[in-house]
Amino acid sequence: MKRPLGTIAHTRSGDKGDTSNIGVIALKPEYYETILREVTPDRVKAFFGDRVKGKVERFELPNLGAINLLLHEALGGGGTVSLRVDAQGKTYGAALLRMEVELD
Amino acid sequence: MIRIANGQGFWGDWLEAPVRLVDQGPIDFLVLDYLAEVTMSILQKQRQEDPSLGYARDFPPLIGRLAGKLKDHNIKVVANAGGVNPTACARAVLKVAPGLKVAIVHGDDVFGRINEFLGKGYEMPDMDTGQPLSNIRSRILSANAYIGAFPLAEALDTGADVVIAGRSTDTALTLAPMVHKFKWAADDWDKLASGTIAGHIIECGAQCSGGNCQVAGNGADWAQIPNMADVGYPIVEAEPDGSFVVTKHAGTGGRVHSDTVKEQLLYELGDPKRYITPDCIADFTTVHLADIGPDRVSIRGIRGGPRPPTLKLSISYTDGWKAIGTLVYSWPQSVEKARAADRIVRARLAGLGLSFDEIYTELFGLDACIGPASPGNPDPPEIQLRIGVRGQDRKAVDRFTRELIPLVLNGPPGATGFGEGRPPVREIVAYWSALIPREEITTRVEVIS
């Protein structure tokens, strides 16, 4: 059963230079395994297409039912250099909630 | 137990927040975070133009407004409001609050020591690109070492009412009162990591108490978080064993819940096992949260590791010029018209022989924020065309700013939204981070009253 990620998770995103981070947090503990299986670096990179020039890294925080995604070279240079309206990747977290995931 | 409240998540945050924290309930320490990477360069420029400036100018009037209450309730203030001129900041505070004892933490500003460091063989390569600092030496605007909690705690130990630092880390502001009050040792890594993570949770003000929160427990989404107009800023109730409770004053708006705290824990995080500060390396995978009451989240179990042998330098430098201009195209065919206008601007810039490091176009209302992740907008009623350029030649960037408004008359039909006139040309201040052995940085506390 395919559903948007937002049915099982909430997110917050921000920046460190030209890297955007997205924290993805399970709405219920039982969703964490699904997030681990479905929200892979490859799928996240594909979802954002040419917005992410570098690699996507993923870290696990099982204690919070959360993963932390680092999207490298994803902010048009970042900070003050970037010409984008969202130079800090503030909106990337909410955007990821639309990615389709296979629910158990 | 001590109560540490954060009343400012960045310079420009809600002016009323610190006043409400003092007025609406008990706190022992008020911490205020004023500095972002870019802020230091702005302050450095202000100081170059006027030696009595270079600090967060909102801070002295705030302390003037609070002075009597700080004394009455014995509330101590810890702030990195000093920017590149903490002494001037302290003098400005004493001018409006002469009864207070103010402690200044010196030593973070290494703008005048760059040549000394280079001479000693420190290449200070950028932590992102690996390029040596010598590449941008002539363009440096400011250079500061991130200072940890111990110099701030030493300043609190003097009995000061207000501690003013320059480039301290955001988390150190919250950790310092704990080190001061609980006498934590410099190698008590687990406790230092606890205080560091407490600092991370509250350093962005209301971002852990309902602000920018998508959900807030029990199925509540952002729209159901109560009374955001009166959002309560966060308070940490810290215990000597390192455990703490995140809360806010009773009766204030917003919500503190494990959901809102988790969102902030993940904010601007890198490797969660290695959150590196001057004081310790905190492990975010050891945080254990529990909702223990309305707007009360208990946190315990945090582990940490030894502090690194280096301190991080925050260096800003000029990197050319930029300008961003906008025009609005209305229905019908708003997207097609905006794209046509963009092609015209680019052709005209090329025709003028102007070149830039980058020309970047976004269609605001279509996919400007999130690009290919956007759900799309097949027939938008209006689109804002947003074109930005950056380059090393100021004249070229300036010329670009004259190429948008003519399109109202000589481009696709239906353009509007040009009322602001030509966009301003801004100098780009870029950010460089590097490491330096911590022995090179010596801090000093000065008390004035």
Protein model, in words:
The complex is a heterodimer of chains A (104) and B (449). Chain A has 3 helices and 6 strands, in the order βββααββαβ. Chain A has helices at 32-38, 41-48, 92-96, and strands at 2-4, 9-16, 19-26, 56-61, 66-71, 100-102. The N and C termini of chain A lie close together (7 Å). In chain A, 55% of the residues are buried. Chain B is globular, with a radius of gyration of 24 Å. Chain B has 12 helices and 19 strands. In chain B, the strands form 3 sheets. A 10-stranded mixed β-sheet of chain B has the order 11-12-8-7-1-2-3-6-4-19, sandwiched between helices. Chain B has 449 residues and is of the alpha+beta class. At the A-B interface, β2, β3, β4, β5 and α3 of A face α9, β14, β15, β16 and β18 of B.
What layout of secondary structure does this protein have?
The complex is a heterodimer of chains A (104) and B (449).
Chain A: E1 2-4, E2 9-16, E3 19-26, H1 32-38, H2 41-48, E4 56-61, E5 66-71, H3 92-96, E6 100-102
Antiparallel strand pairs in A: 1-6, 2-3, 3-5, 4-5
Chain B: E1 2-8, H1 16-23, E2 29-32, H2 37-49, H3 59-73, E3 76-79, H4 86-96, E4 102-106, H5 114-119, E5 140-145, H6 149-157, E6 162-165, H7 170-182, H8 189-202, E7 235-238, E8 244-247, H9 258-266, E9 275-276, E10 281-283, E11 288-293, E12 296-300, E13 303-305, E14 310-330, H10 334-351, E15 358-364, E16 382-391, H11 394-400, H12 407-410, E17 415-416, E18 426-437, E19 444-448
Parallel strand pairs in B: 1-2, 2-3, 3-6, 4-6
Antiparallel strand pairs in B: 1-7, 4-19, 5-14, 7-8, 8-12, 9-10, 10-13, 11-12, 14-16, 14-17, 14-18, 15-16
